[in-house]
Design a protein that fits this description.
3 domains; 5-stranded mixed sheet; 6-stranded antiparallel sheet; alpha+beta; rod-shaped; 448 residues; Heat Shock Protein 90; Beta-Lactamase
Length: 448
């Protein structure tokens, strides 16, 4: 996939994810708001209906107050009061009812079949003993009771809210009720209004997101082709540099093999041939030349080991970083006579394999630069850990150089060090003056 399309995807995907998250959040909040508004509407309507019921019962009490306050308890007075209550009504389904203390119906203007019956044990569809609950609410509660009852105008059982009071002297329970199916309708309407508002909001967010996606997509397609070509040129240059480095490394190994191993092997071959002739002719120097050739062969084997160690030190794989650096320092001192001090405050277990190779190669490259350019007599290598990173410092007392020329020079040593450090997202610095050159490297430690 091309870079510009990747950039477009990276720009669009977070936007789409954000919009989806916002939509989910809006839906969640809307559900919560919907429930709160529905409860608020229901509680408001129920409060209004309770006040309405209380007023209706107060009106009924005022109608029979002359009879009740007269102090008469004879059957004729009570029947007269029941007739007054039976004629009182409000709305299509509003009426009053009367029960005695034992749950016997004394008056019901809409359901005459209930009059005279003991209904104390009657239950609604939810299993609630309706008359018993009404009596308890009138005697001990606030007078309000919710239950299911048949609605006269439709013949259907629906929820009803009643308000009852006790007429203690007559032993009556007087009450009325309002069917609250309209509360459910109002609540449903409230929910629908909230849902409609949420849908409008989500559509607005989706429209904005679509416009934003189109803008990002169009912008991505209109990326500057010059930048694209520049990236291609950089990639081409990087590939060329890799090939160049491979060729330089091959040339170096080739030179070492030709100038070192090859010449030594040719010299050994001549010495062995000379020794063979001298031994055939019985000359005494044959054994001496044979021994000299054997010594030269040992030197050639050592040279092979050195080249192999430069390519990939075996101690780095078998014993770890510190022993490999120790061997590198010893060989450097023997080869150059430059006193080299190695200081370490680092446990090899703290360093993974890739970082170990990087540190070893940086030290190897730094020592090579000291050998070739510094004219130093002493060098110090220190390796330690601090604040989540590995710190490496290589210092020498050589002639120094101008670090500003480093990037413009044709040498690859310091550039290789910088690239190795950059690979690990580390920090690299070099400070130099006559008599002192210091190379500093910090590589972050990857915690397991």
């Amino acid at each position: 996939m091309q870079l510009k399309y990747k950039i477009v995807i990276l720009g669009v995907l977070p936007l789409i994810v954000s919009v989806l998250f916002i939509c989910v959040l809006v839906f969640a909040q809307s559900r919560k708001l919907e429930e709160q508004q529905a409860k608020l509407v229901e509680s408001s309507i129920m409060a209004a209906k309770k006040a309405e019921l209380k007023n209706y019962v107060g009106l009924a009490l005022s109608q029979i107050a002359p009879l009740y306050d007269s102090g008469r308890d004879d059957p004729e007075t009570r029947q007269q009061a029941l007739r007054i209550l039976s004629r009182s009504s409000f709305g299509l389904d509003g009426y009053f009812f009367v029960y005695d203390r034992h749950g016997k119906n004394l008056m019901h203007p809409r359901q005459a079949n209930l009059v005279g019956k003991e209904l104390i044990g009657m239950k609604d569809k939810n299993g609630l003993p309706v008359i018993q609950a009404l009596l308890e609410s009138a005697q001990n509660g606030d007078g309000y009771q919710l239950y299911a009852w048949e609605k006269p105008s439709t013949g259907l059982v629906t929820e009803k809210l009643s308000y009852v009071v006790m007429l203690d002297r007559w032993g009556w329970m007087l009450g009325t009720g309002i069917y609250i199916d309209d509360v459910e309708v109002a609540t449903l309407k409230s929910r629908q209004e909230v849902a409609s508002g949420v849908l409008t909001t989500v559509l607005a967010i989706a429209s904005f997101a679509l416009v934003a996606v189109l803008v990002v997509f169009t912008g991505g397609l209109m990326l500057n082709f010059t930048e694209h070509r520049l990236a291609d040129r950089k990639l081409s240059a990087l590939n060329q540099r890799i090939v160049h480095l491979q060729e330089e490394e091959r040339s170096r190994v080739s030179r070492e093999l030709h100038d070192g191993i090859s010449q030594q092997l040719v010299s050994i071959k001549f010495q062995f041939e000379l020794a063979s002739l001298e031994l055939e002719n019985g000359q005494g120097r044959g054994l001496e030349n044979l021994r000299a050739g054997t010594a030269r062969l040992g030197e050639a084997i050592g040279e092979v080991r050195r080249i192999s160690h430069d390519l990939r030190p075996s101690l780095l794989d078998t014993l770890g970083l510190s022993p490999a650096i120790d061997q590198l320092v010893r060989e450097f001192e023997q080869r150059t006579a430059i006193r080299t001090q190695y200081e370490r405050e680092l446990d090899d277990a703290q360093v993974d394999k890739e970082v170990s190779v990087t540190l070893f190669r940086i030290i190897q490259e730094a020592l090579g630069n000291i050998e070739r350019h510094s004219k130093a007599s002493a060098a110090i290598i220190s390796l330690s850990t601090s604040k989540g990173s590995i710190s490496l410092c290589v210092e020498d007392n050589g002639v120094g150089f101008d670090p500003g020329l480093m990037d413009r020079s044709h040498g690859i040593g310091l550039r290789n060090i910088r690239e190795r450090v950059d690979h690990h997202r580390g920090a690299f610095g070099i400070f130099s003056s006559p008599g002192r050159t210091e190379l500093q490297v910090e590589i972050p430690v990857q915690r397991a």
